[in-house]
Every structure is written in structure tokens, then in C-alpha cells.
Design brief:
The chain is α/β, with parallel strands linked by helices. It has two domains: about 140 residues, Response regulator (Rossmann fold), CATH 3.40.50.2300; about 120 residues, Alpha-Beta Complex (Spore Coat Polysaccharide Biosynthesis Protein SpsA, Chain A), CATH 3.90.550.10. Helices cover about 30% and strands about 25% of the residues. The protein contains ten helices and 16 strands. The radius of gyration is 23 Å and the shape is elongated.
Length: about 350
């Protein structure tokens, strides 16, 4: 029938949070459905899925949602037909947010002129995670961009190179060409987990150009910190830069950064420095040569930067706010299961 209930085995876990609204996700791509449902249910929404327009119309009758995220291009019945049926039936619910790669001006004009205001907003693929400008906020009807495009300044960069490894095809399909974020995306593949320096080398070979900002996919930064780091790096005029943090403090497996006069002097697992490396690097053209001849695999940026420092290159150090490591089991528990508090 093309409908998936919230209690189905492949839905995200129920985190016992109060329901803030019901969202019907009308989308036929399973990978994108999972991302949307995960993000929404983490925010307290109840979600259910229709994989074609015909199933969506049935669900509007049997269990009306507050919000419908609607793909335009689907089998059996497309999104345009669904919108037309809603208009014909005179339904004042649900609020409709179009989720589609088809965000050309002609499509927006068609939606606005032909559907009598039934479209609350357009959300270009992919749907970003909560915390990115306009994601869940848009679904809560706080629309900040009247053009329907999400705005993510990406630290002032208009071109981003994504180096993919595991699940590369799925990641690339979800991110698309970058138009949903207002930037250009390039891709490079890393067939084996050969380290961060190898990943940067592959990005350079794919067309990335120094100066670069380099960060890891599993690190979440405080809003604005990427842009502040980028500005500080460019203003410093040094061949390289590293980001440091105090929260969370250095722990097992985390590199510490020793600093003297605003410059990094040592980046290593040991030592007494209160600053942990924050998985964010500024890389100028002079540092590229130090990516070669590293010990490994894996070939790591930490070694490349320490070699550059030992070779006399100046590497600035700038402190950023708290970060999250999405691969840390403790972060997983703290962020997703808040009712599991530490013992007094």
C-alpha cells in the first residue's frame, strides 16, 4: 500500500519524548526517508511514511498529519497531483513542505500560482540535520528564506570537497551537487581508511585548492566557530593553523596542542597542555609538501603538521568552543538518551 507506520521495525527508536506534531513523509527513496525520520523523531515528532502519492492521500484521510513533507517526483502518483487533490478537497491541513531537487524558479512559480498557497515552503534536497539553518526550524514553520533555499554559509566557502569512503555512493546521493546548501560540491573517493593526510591528498587531486579548511565528518562545531576559525586563519597569514578546544578536555586518544605566543609548538597524544586538538585544520600551499613521505598507513595530518612545525613553518592555534564527537559512545548516550543521567 506504500505506507509505513511509526511502529514499524525499521523506524527510529522511541525516545519517550513528548510528541510535538505528526509529520507524514511522502518519499520513495529509502535512504532519504531514514535520514528525515531520524532527524524529526529526535526532535519529538511522530513520523509515518507514504512511498507514493496515492498512499499519501489515503493517509490524509485516515490519520491526518500536522505537516506533510512531499517529494514531487514519485511513482504511481506524483507530488503535483497530490497537491492538486488537496486543493480540490479544500483541506486546510496539513501544512505542506515540498522536499525535492526540483527547485528551479519555474517549479516555484507553478507551486505558488497553481496551488493557491497550499505549499508552505520548499526544502531542497538533501534535508539537513537539526542544528543546520532552516532544517527542523523550517518544519516548525519558522521559514527564514522566502526563496525556499536553505542557507548554510559553510564558513564562507562556496566550494567544498567531500572525501568519501564507507557508503560513498549513499553519502554522495544524499548530498547531491551542493545546491541545497548554496555551494558547489566536489567528491573524491578514499578506498581504504588510510588516514586524514591521505584524504586531503585525494581531495587536492580531485580539484581542491589551498588554502583549505579541513575537518572530519564526525565532529560537530558550535555555530559560527568554523567561520571564525577561517577568518582567523586568513588574517594570521601563516602557512597553517589548528583549532583547539578545552571542552571536552583532552582524553585518551586525543591529541594535545602545546601553544607558545599563539603558535602551535607540539601536537601529540602526551603532555600537560589543557588544549585538545579540535579536528579542524587550516592548510596553506606551503604545507602541502609535508603530506608526502609520512609513516603509515594510516597517513595522518597530525604528523604532517608536526613535521612542518619542526621544519620551521609557523602554525597558528585558535581556540573554538565545545565540540561533539559523533563516534564517541558517551556522546551517543548523552545526546540521544537525556533521561539517562549520571549518578549523583
Amino acid at each position: 500500500m506504500g505506507i509505513s507506520e511509526p511502529s514499524s521495525p525499521d523506524s527510529v527508536p522511541d525516545l519517550d519524548r513528548p510528541c510535538v506534531g505528526k509529520v507524514l513523509v511522502v518519499e520513495d527513496e529509502a535512504d532519504l526517508v531514514w535520514v528525515i525520520r531520524f532527524n524529526l523523531e529526535m526532535e519529538g515528532y511522530r513520523t509515518y511514511v507514504a512511498t507514493n502519492g496515492e498512499a499519501a492521500l489515503e493517509m490524509l484521510h485516515t490519520d491526518p498529519p500536522d505537516i506533510m513533507l512531499l517529494d514531487l517526483m514519485m511513482p504511481v502518483m506524483d507530488g503535483w497531483t497530490v497537491l492538486e487533490e488537496i486543493r480540490k478537497r479544500g483541506l486546510d491541513r496539513p501544512k505542506v513542505i515540498v522536499v525535492s531537487a526540483r527547485t528551479a524558479a519555474g517549479d516555484r512559480a507553478r507551486a505558488g500560482a497553481g496551488l493557491a498557497g497550499r505549499v508552505t515552503a520548499e526544502l531542497a534536497r538533501p534535508v539537513p540535520a537539526p542544528g543546520q539553518d532552516g532544517a527542523v526550524g523550517l518544519q516548525r514553520e519558522h521559514v527564514t528564506d522566502p526563496g525556499g533555499q536553505l542557507r548554510d554559509p559553510a564558513a564562507g566557502c562556496d566550494r567544498v570537497t567531500v572525501v568519501t569512503g564507507h557508503l560513498a555512493e549513499q553519502v554522495e546521493r544524499l548530498l547531491g551537487d551542493g545546491s541545497a546548501f548554496g555551494l558547489e560540491l566536489l567528491y573524491a573517493r578514499q578506498p581504504r581508511p588510510d588516514g586524514s593526510a591521505d584524504a586531503v591528498s585525494r581531495g587536492l587531486a580531485a580539484g581542491a585548492e589551498a588554502p583549505l579548511l579541513v575537518t572530519t565528518a564526525d565532529t560537530v562545531f558550535r555555530q559560527g566557530d568554523l567561520a571564525r576559525f577561517a577568518s582567523a586563519f586568513m588574517n594570521a597569514g601563516t602557512p597553517g593553523a589548528v583549532a583547539t578546544r578545552r571542552d571536552p578536555p583532552p582524553g585518551p586518544g586525543t591529541a594535545r596542542v602545546e601553544i607558545d605566543g599563539g603558535m602551535a609548538t607540539r601536537i601529540a597524544a602526551g603532555g600537560e597542555s589543557p588544549f585538545a586538538h579540535a579536528s579542524l585544520w587550516g592548510l596553506g600551499a606551503e604545507l602541502i609538501a609535508y603530506l608526502e613521505g609520512l609513516g603509515g598507513p594510516p597517513f595522518e595530518l597530525l604528523e604532517a603538521y608536526q613535521r612542518a612545525i619542526d621544519g620551521g613553518l609557523r602554525v597558528s592555534a585558535f581556540e573554538v568552543g565545545p565540540t561533539r564527537d559523533l563516534t564517541d559512545p558517551l556522546d551517543l548516550v548523552k545526546e540521544n538518551f537525556p533521561y539517562l543521567s549520571e549518578s549523583e
